[in-house]
Amino acid sequence: MTKKEWPLWEVFIRSKAGLNHKHVGSLRAADAHMAIENARDVYTRRSEGISIWVVESNNLVASDPSDADSLFEPADSKVYRHPTFYDVPDGISHM
Amino acid sequence: MNSLFEYVLRLGDDSLILGHRLSEWCGHGPILEEDIAMTNISLDLVGQATSLLGYAGELEGKGRDADALAFLRFDREYKNLLLVEQPNGDFGMTMMRQFFFDAYRKPLFEKLQHSSDKHLAAIAEKSLKETKYHLKHSSEWVIRLGDGTEESNARVQESLNTLWRYTNELFFTNEVDAELVEKGIVPTMQEIQNEWNATVTAVLNEATLTIPTNNWKQEGGRKGLHSEHLGYILAELQYMQRAYPNMQW
Known about the structure:
The structure holds 2 protein chains of 2 kinds. Chain A is of the alpha+beta class. Helices cover 22% and strands 22% of the residues of chain A. Chain A has a 3-stranded antiparallel beta sheet with strand order 2-1-3, covered by helices on one side. Chain B has one domain: Ferritin (Up-down Bundle). Chain B has 10 helices and no strands. The A-B interface holds A 6, 27-30, 33-34, 37-38, 40-42, 45 and B 31-34, 36-37, 40, 133, 136-137, 140, 144.
């Protein structure tokens, strides 16, 4: 008998209405249907969520860690991209 | 006889013994995800047992609580189905046993949630949500394994053949049921059996499995007459309370 692993799936959970789905981890499942059920059992057993997305890990395209210098470092010196140069008028809360 | 006590005890014992059986899979599941799924279902069932046996104790009115009923009775006093005490076997056997049970429990709780007995109705309503998921989980596995590889089909067909003889007892009735149906507290078993037949036929067909034509059936659990397996389950389940009476942790 050949030993074949089920494909890996990435799991995203929405913790409550209005919030975005967040990556919580991964699991193995034979197909999308089983992936949803396994995600329900593995990642929502302590009431962590109200909605689940799964995507087969193969389908994710990731940035190359060796490109991190050119991709992310240039942003470090662009402080003007943060909206920190404005005076917030009185009476505006939650800023 | 206190009919409602007897009826609630049956439900509670089914949940307790099947919950215990499933807990034996903890750490032994075929994959991590399924290990957790079975443990979740086990805990759902033990939770139901806590509510049901607690209520049974109240109905009995002799001061026994859920723990006293779970841990301090002898095998002949347990009224669970023979089906739920059968050994786990392989994963397919466990799923087939679960499927037969879930397909019976779902329509039963659907009816019981409208029971004129408010306490029983509330337990049924809460348990139904769990049971619906259990049924979805077990039916999908029966279909996957039946309509899977040659080996998985042969093995799960074997489990079906072995467990089929215990399915008739799901619909056991005696004077307890007659009295409670009369009072409008519980549904007739005929309704439950019709729905069970429909679910089981549909799922087993989709799973390309064959329903055994051998109609020899076995029953006894509802009367307290159990297979040898229950004794071993109780030995493990009751050991602590028997060895250290009233211990808590």
